[in-house]
Amino acid sequence: MNIKPKLEVKKHKDFEYIDEGNGEVLLLLHGLFGALSNWDGVVDQFKDRYRIVIPMLPIYDMPVRKAGLELLEAFTTEFVDEMGFEDLTVMGNSLGGHIALMYTLNNPNKVKRLVLTGSSGLFENSMGGSFPKRGSYDYIKERVEYTFYDPKTATDEYINEVFETTKSIPKCMRIVGIAKSAQRHNMADVIPNIKAPTLLIWGLNDTITPPMVGHEFNRLIPNSKLRFIDKCCHAPMMEQPQRFNDILEEFLLETQSMDQAS
Which of 44, 181, 226, 262 has the fewest CB atoms below 10 angstroms from its CB? Predict the structure, then answer.
């Protein structure tokens, strides 16, 4: 059996990130329980033509009392500035989509395209309706599987990683603080100001940010396109990586040709 080597995590100052390929930058932002590996399928398909950068968001390192979206968006801004990126395609899943929205609105001149998948920012059924319970492996397993259409997508390794995280009281406090911050921070009034071409890739069976949320984003973001993937829940790039990549590829080519025409 061929075991794919893990991507190299690079370090620069206080930042840890994956940086693969060359060309125009795709900046990928993971969710609250996300990991850099969530984007493996995107890296594999696009690294021959794009520079794919995935920062590790400091979800477990920020001060507990200040844990929230504002610090995560500030971190993203600092990271992009430090790396000297321009003309970005910013892509976010779940909480990462929320941060992508905030970053795009605050830095419209740096964002060429926006891609959201299962994004919070309008409505989300956090953790399937409840916050994490420490110490119960079965509960964590059930909650992690709840985010996938096919529970088998949640590998033992991924479930164990989330379980280990939720065993820590300070980490749990940060997770709850960030989740509550996301629920309070509704962006319906401001996202109509987004000018960048936007692709919405949604799981038709998403239980966390249901299909109606995708429709609402599509209604509110002026230059947006909504695509659904069947038999897919909250993390399409993990559950249906090839279908996700096909939709993304089409969008990248289409917006590239629009740039060239103008």
Answer: 262
Whether residue 167 has pLDDT greater than 70: yes
Rounded CA-CA distance 146/199 in Å is 25
Among the listed residues 125, 150, 122, 114, the one whose alpha carbon sits nearest the alpha carbon of residue 233: 150
Task: Give burial (CB, 10 Å; 0-12/13-18/19+) of 175.
Answer: buried
Map out the domains of the chain with their CATH numbers. Answer: 10-124+186-261 (3.40.50.1820)
Q: List the one residue out of 112, 113, 86, 118 whose CA is nearest residue 182.
A: 118
Kindly give the pairing relationship between strand 50-55 and strand 24-29: parallel
The beta-strand segments (E) located in the chain are 10-12, 15-20, 24-29, 50-55, 88-93, 111-117, 198-203, 224-229
The length of the chain in residues reads: 262
Pairing of the two strands 224-229 and 15-20:
unpaired
- Compute the distance between CA of residue 11 and CA of residue 15 in angstroms, rounded to an integer: 6
Residue corresponding to tokens 């395609």: 89
d(CA 140, CA 125): 16
In this prediction, residues 102-123 reach a mean pLDDT of 96
User: What number is the average pLDDT over the span 227-244?
Assistant: 96
Pick 128 or 144 by higher pLDDT: 144
Distances (CA, A) of 154 to 76, 140, 145, 196, 255: 27, 11, 6, 33, 33
72, pLDDT greater than 90: yes
- Residue % of the chain over a pLDDT of 90: 63
